[in-house]
Amino acid sequence: MSLVGELSSSSTTGTGFFSSTSPLTSDSGINSNEKKITDPYGQINFKFMIIFPLLLVVFFILFFSFSQVYGGRQIVILVIGLLFGISLSQCKFGYTSSFRNLIANRKGKNFRALITMFALTMWILSIIISASPNHKSWTDKTKELHLSAAPVSWTVFFGSFIFGIGCLHEVGSGIVRTLIVFIFFIVGTFIAALDWSFNVWFKAKSEGRINLIEKWGTAGGTIFQTFVFLILGIITIAIEIKKHGLVEEKFLQRILMKLFPKLRDIARNKSNSIESKSLLTNHTKNAKREVVKNIFTKKHDIYVGSILLTIAQVFLYLSTSNFWGVMGVFPFLIALPLRAMNVDVEKMKYFQEYSTLPTHFFANDYIVLDLSIILGAFLSATVTGTFGKGNYRPNWKVYGSAIIAGLLLGFGSRWAYGCNVGAWTSPSISASVSGYVWFAGGLLGNIVGVVCRPYVGLKN
Predict the structure, then answer these.
(1) What Cα–Cα distance (Å) separates residue 453 from each residue in 10, 25, 165, 170?
(2) CA dist 435 → 27, 207, 423, 427, 441 (Å)
(3) So where does this one cross the membrane (predicted)?
(4) Does residue 11 lie within any of the structural domains?
C-alpha cells in the first residue's frame, strides 16, 4: 500500500514553510500608515526551521552509514525512495483516494493518473528490456531484470478483497490514525505469515504465474495491456461525465468537447460551477508564475506525480532489478525484534520457504526503500507546511475501526502476495494476469469499504 500517498491531504491551511498568515504580519499594534516590512513570500514558519534540519540530519546519517557498510547499492535505494516519498506527498498521489473518489463521488482523475503511471512505466521498461534483454542490475551484476507476477489463485482475489475493505482508512489520514493503521498493518502481515495462514495462501491451488509479455512477446503483451488501460480510462470518463457533465482535467475536457460537441450541452445542463463555466468559455487565467516558490512549497497536479513516480520506478528497476513494493518486509519488522529476544522465528515456514529473514534491518532493500519513502514524505510535508496538521481530538470509534482496518490491510495484502503497490502496480506494469485478479478483488473490497465508512465516523 502507498504509505504516504495522502500524508497531508487533510490539511487546508498554510502555504509551506512560508506561512500566509502570522501574528507578525497582523494589523494589531501597527500604524496603518507605516509600511510593513515582510518577506515577499510571507513570514517564515519556525516549525520548518526545527523539523527540516532534523530530517536532513537523519538523511545524512543514513547516507554515510550505508556508504560505510553496504557501499553504493543502499545509497541508490535511499535516494530513489526519497523521490518516491516526495512525489507521493507533494502531488497527493493516493491509491485509496483514487478508488474512493471513483466509487463515492464518481470522479476518476486520480484513477486515470494511476493508470497513466502504469502505462508510462510499462512502455519505458518494455523498450529497455527489448533493447537489452540480458541487462544486469546497475548495483549488482549478478541480478538479471525480471518481470513481476504472482500466482493466479483465489487467495489473490480474496486477499485483495479483504485489503480493499481495510482501505476504509487511508494511511496518511492524520498522525494518530496513520500510526494506528500502520502499526496494525504490520501486525496483520505477521499474523498472515504464521504457519496456519501461510499453509493456506502459499500452497493454494493456482494457475501459476501468467505473464502476457512472456506469452505474446514484448510488443503483444504491452499493446494489449495499453488497450486495457485505455478501456479503464474511457469507463471512468463515462462515469464522471454521466454524473457531473465534466471531467476534472481541463485539458481532457477541452479535447472531449472538440471531439464530441454535444458534451458542451451536457456540461451546461449538469453543472453550473465556476470551473465548468471556465471550460465552456475556454477562459484561462494569466496567473503569476512564482516558479521557485511553487516547485517546493505548493502541491502539484497528480499527473506530475505520475511522471515522477514513473521515473522513480524505472530507476529502481534498472538499479536493483526490483519492482516497487512496500509490505513484503513488514513481517520482518516483528520477526527481527523477536529474534533479538531469542524467539526462534526462523522455524516459521514463511521464512524457510518464501522469504529469507535478513541478518538485520538495513540489509534488506525494501526496508531501506520503505524508510526512505517515509523520510521523503516527511521532508515534503515539512516544506509545504502540512507536517503535523490534522485533528488530534481522540475519537475511540474511529481509532477502533483503524485497528480493524490495519489488520485487514496486513492480512489481506499478505494473502494477495502484496498490497496495491506490489500486487497491483508492479504486475500491471509487467502485464501479468495476477494484476487483473488483484484489481477485481480490490475494487469490490473498496466498494464495501466506502459503504462502511459512515458507520465508523468517516466521510466519503
Answers:
(1) 16, 41, 10, 11
(2) 57, 14, 6, 5, 10
(3) 44-66, 72-91, 111-132, 152-172, 179-202, 222-241, 302-320, 366-386, 398-417, 437-456
(4) no
Percent above pLDDT 90 for the chain: 40
Sign for the CA dihedral angle at 187, 189, 193, 198 comes to: positive
pLDDT of residue 47: 57
- Its pTM stands at 0.80
CA distances from 113 to 5, 108, 118, 236 (A): 13, 9, 9, 11
Instruction: Assess if residue 156 is contained within a domain.
Output: yes
Cα–Cα distance for residue pair 419/216, rounded to 1 Å? 27
* pLDDT band with cut points at 50, 70 and 90 for residue 199: very high
Residues 143, 137 contacting (CB under 8 angstroms): yes
With a CB cutoff of 8 Å and minimum separation 6, the contacts of 173 are: 6, 9, 10, 181, 390
C-alpha cell at 425: 502496480
Per mean pLDDT, which of 10-24, 65-79, 187-201, 348-362 is the most reliable? 187-201
Q: Is 255 inside a domain boundary?
A: yes
To which residue does cell 536532513 refer? 56
Least confident of 68-77, 169-178, 258-267, 286-295: 286-295
Centroid of chain to Cα 151? 23
Residue with cell 506490489: 422
Counting the structural domains of the chain, the total is 1
Q: CA-CA distance, 297 to 15, in Å (whole number)?
A: 6
Measure the CA–CA gap between 188 and 414, rounded to whole angstroms. Answer: 8
**Helix, strand or coil, per DSSP, at residue 154:** helix
Residue 65 burial (C-beta neighbours within 10 Å; 0-12, 13-18, 19+):
middle
Q: Is 147 inside a domain boundary?
A: yes
Residue 260: C-alpha distances to residues 256, 267, 282 (Å): 6, 12, 16
Q: In angstroms, rounded to a whole number, what is the distance separating the alpha carbons of residues 5 and 380?
A: 12
Based on DSSP, count helices (H) and strands (E) in the chain, helices before strands. 19, 2
Q: What sign does the CA torsion over 398, 442, 314, 74 have? A: positive
Per-residue pLDDT tens over the stretch 416-441: 999 999 999 999 999 999 999 999 99
pLDDT exceeds cutoff 50 at 19: no
DSSP 8-state class, residue 19: E
Residue-number span of the structural domain to which 203 is assigned: 43-456
